[in-house]
UniProtKB/TrEMBL annotation, chain A:
<dbReference type="GO" id="GO:0051301">
    <property type="term" value="P:cell division"/>
</dbReference>
<dbReference type="GO" id="GO:0008360">
    <property type="term" value="P:regulation of cell shape"/>
</dbReference>
<dbReference type="InterPro" id="IPR001182">
    <property type="entry name" value="FtsW/RodA"/>
</dbReference>
<dbReference type="GO" id="GO:0005886">
    <property type="term" value="C:plasma membrane"/>
</dbReference>
<feature type="transmembrane region" description="Helical">
    <location>
        <begin position="78"/>
        <end position="96"/>
    </location>
</feature>
<keyword id="KW-0472">Membrane</keyword>
<feature type="transmembrane region" description="Helical">
    <location>
        <begin position="182"/>
        <end position="215"/>
    </location>
</feature>
<feature type="transmembrane region" description="Helical">
    <location>
        <begin position="321"/>
        <end position="342"/>
    </location>
</feature>
<keyword id="KW-1133">Transmembrane helix</keyword>
UniProtKB/TrEMBL annotation, chain B:
<dbReference type="GO" id="GO:0071972">
    <property type="term" value="F:peptidoglycan L,D-transpeptidase activity"/>
</dbReference>
<dbReference type="GO" id="GO:0008360">
    <property type="term" value="P:regulation of cell shape"/>
</dbReference>
<dbReference type="GO" id="GO:0009252">
    <property type="term" value="P:peptidoglycan biosynthetic process"/>
</dbReference>
<keyword id="KW-0121">Carboxypeptidase</keyword>
<keyword id="KW-0133">Cell shape</keyword>
<dbReference type="GO" id="GO:0006508">
    <property type="term" value="P:proteolysis"/>
</dbReference>
<keyword id="KW-1133">Transmembrane helix</keyword>
<feature type="domain" description="Penicillin-binding protein dimerisation">
    <location>
        <begin position="46"/>
        <end position="207"/>
    </location>
</feature>
<keyword id="KW-1003">Cell membrane</keyword>
Amino acid sequence: MAKGTISFDWITILIYLLLISFGWMNIYSASLGDAPSGIFDFNEIYGKQAIWIILGLFMIIIILSIEAKFYMKFSSVFYIITLVSILGLFAFGKTINGATSWYVFGGVSIQPAEFAKVGTTLALANYLGDIQTNIKLFSHQLKAFFIIVLPALIILPQPDAGSAMVYAAFLFPLYREGLSGIYLFLGFAGITVFILTLVLGPFYVAIAVVVVCLLSLLQKKRRRPKPLVILGIIIGAVALSYSVDYIFENVFEQRHRDRFNIVLGKEVDARGIGYNTNQSEIAIGSGGWLGKGWTEGTQTKGQFVPEQHTDYIFSTVGEEWGFLGTSLVVLLFMGLLFRLLFLAERQKSTFHRVYGYSLVGIMFIHFLVNIGMVTGIFPTVGIPLPFFSYGGSGLWGFTILLFIFIKLDSERMAF
Amino acid sequence: MRRLLLYIIIITTGFIFIGRLFYLQIVDDSFAGLSEDNAIKVVYDYPQRGYIFDRNGELLVSNQPSYDVMAIPRNIKPFDTAEFCSILKLTPEQLSKKLDKAKIYSPRLPSIIVPQLTKSEYAYLQEKMRKYPGFYIQKRSLRDYQTQNGSNVLGYIAEVNNKIIDENPYYISGDLIGKQGVEGQYEELLRGIKGVKYIQKDRFNRDIGPFKEGIFDTLPKKGKDVTLSIDAMLQAYGEKLMENKRGGIVAIEPATGEILSLVTAPSYDPALLVGRKRSANFTKFYNDTYSKPLYDRGLLAEYPPGSPFKTINALIALQEDVVDIHDKFSCNRGYVYGRGRKLGCHAHASPLDMIPGIAQSCNAYFANVYRRIIEKYPTPQEGIDTWAKHLNSFGLGEFLGYDLPAGRSGKIPTSEYYNKIYEYPTYKWFATATISNAIGQGEVLMTPIQLANMTATIANRGWFYTPHILKNIEGESISDPDYTKKNFTTIDSEHFIPVIEGMHQVYKVGTASALQIPGIEIAGKTGTAENFTKINGKRTQLTDHSIFIAFAPVDNPKIAIAVFVENGYWGGRYAGRIASLMIEKYLKNSISRKDMETWVLTHSLEDEYLKPLSGEPFSINK
């Protein structure tokens, strides 16, 4: 192919730049002290973030100038570096906010879990892109799961359940490549039963499952599931329901129970564990249509929302930019995800497509869990909003993840 | 499907989020209001309440600083309750009750927990305040009374109740408001307007500066200083004379309608209703149904006016042209009307024409005059209504419209009233059935201030300014047309000449001849009013009320006064003496007849008031 056909997807890059800039404006507001200093003041949170962003732009140039083949060829190496870096946390990691997730060099702390997604994505894309891999085979499914679950299992006990949960995103590329829908169905059904159990209790869930299954018997004979399958579903669902109840009451710690109960509206305790969510809702709710204006948010100034510049940055958007700002951010994310899906779908090679789907999946999970948490729909799980939340590691992790794909896309004709 | 799944999930999620945000930011407005914003603390800046001066510029009421302990319930963290209670002399139960109440009012707005600390309590607590997050001390100004008199005129200051808060959004819980008297009437003038500051807070409830550089803040506006028409010296003297008696004194400057003094007895020191002892004292006064210190007899008590009323009957008769001042009527110890019915009178020369008739207060004379007024018209109904209309023009039988929040309309009967009680047209009634009106007994009722205004109207020969207590606001004289426009009566001014001469003769030769003041020409009229009470459901007559009206000097009236002394027996006995002393005090600023003053000061009517409560038979008019 001629070099002239190589071009970067400028729509994606534009949305990226919009999100990064708007994100920084909100970080600036949320971390603004009494005496504003230069925007590149490394002693201030917004100053640090500005520097990460500028350095990130240089990094993008480097990523885009490396040939796409490089990422494909060395995907296994990246994966191994990833595993070593997150394993190394157990020996050299520093504990911040109760999680041993950081390396600290001088004044800079790095969270390897944010970069681990890149290595895992490359490794999964490489495995599925292999001409010998057939995802319909159980043994190959097992291998793929292994690639995904290994980093998740290392991250989980740090403890960083939020980051580990993100690895569920890899179900999307697997499904796209031919993994049976039953996995997604079982996952979805399991989550439904899980939540319903917490809301209604196992007894009613069991009755509901039996009723649904009996109703399915009314279908035409040809489409009717076999009685054994139905029995299996009933037993499985009821067992899950009761075990969820058991696990919830006996295995979960109180803080986990609290987080779920708040979202399910079972316990309202605005000053206690629900404080974060409540403050966040107050901040967003006080924004109204157009918000209070940039750096004019009273809740933001008063620092009522904990971790506002990181996981709760979206509440600053809500307070200062109102419904206009929040819906714009949601639409920007939807636009970015759609664009990336479109790009992923037009790839000719499996490696490229799996990489694209993984990227979309990961960003979507972050988007879903973060905004869901900040608006009080989801339990409190601490993961950042891509390109928005403060943090060099997160920013760079997502930037690398995204721009490798842009590079891959630009060279798609070559493969 | 494999290609579409993520699109569907992303779209669904996006719409759920936008819906949720729409709900949080637009639909649910529970987070919207500025005052409900937990990042903003609202601090009120209370201005100084206006000072109150008497007509001569003497300071009556000023302010003193006071300190309230406030709490914002949601900001309270666990604290050393025992220490807190011991500083404030509260029991833990009282404290938790107050905190509960504050929480119910609003968890985010401040409530008063302990009002009006003493200086030493404040000094001590101020040091420890940082140990009690959620509590703070608010400085406020309280009334400081420079006088022991005129509590009924001044009114008092109280904390607003929930009803006031609901009706008037200016007030919030714990605010003070003027009640009764001048404080109540001119609340908006005196209080000024409180300022408000919005302060940005952080999550530790620390102030981090003014919200939006203070663009929503307002400065307090100081209350206006007011000057009353009251003469503090005369007011104090009146209250002193009325000690151990019940009743009221109202003195008015006829030329202006300004109320010079408004005495009610018994009364109390206004300082008793300030500070933390306020509520205990108020409850004590409120529950005293026996002497009713909170009841302003000068404005609220409706008494039969008695003989002073005869002066108006004389005026009406002259205006209606039913009598000539030289027409004589004979009196044989009373006036006989109908079979065996007699309106009694005392011993005096007979027959009499108008001037001696007034001077001697002859009942028979006025019974004849009254009948002529009523019987001038074809029916007694028309007669009564014409008579009543003349009386209304004196401000009788209706609210006078003075600038104090308490009052009664008194009563002037009309044909409607008599038709009802005599069951007209089943039964007919005639002038004789209402004959008691001739002498100010019967159905006529007046408040002391109405009686004083009537006196001022006579002094003015036929007009009056509506009595008022406010003289000027920060040096600027009042311009309210209600108080600066003359009200003319329906009586021509020429008819006042013989009536005033009669009232002058009251002092010269008549019923008040013993009350003359050397060097001052006074016109007056005594009154003695029968009155009744119910004891165990039985109508029982009590000792007569002692009534007196007067104005002086006759040719250039400076003061018109009405005095009511409950159960003081005849007019000259208590009311006449008190009126005479008041006039002398006001016009000469000294008392020449010390023996009369001593008599009033040393005589008490407390025994008289105990009689109907004793449960035993008692004699009256002794």
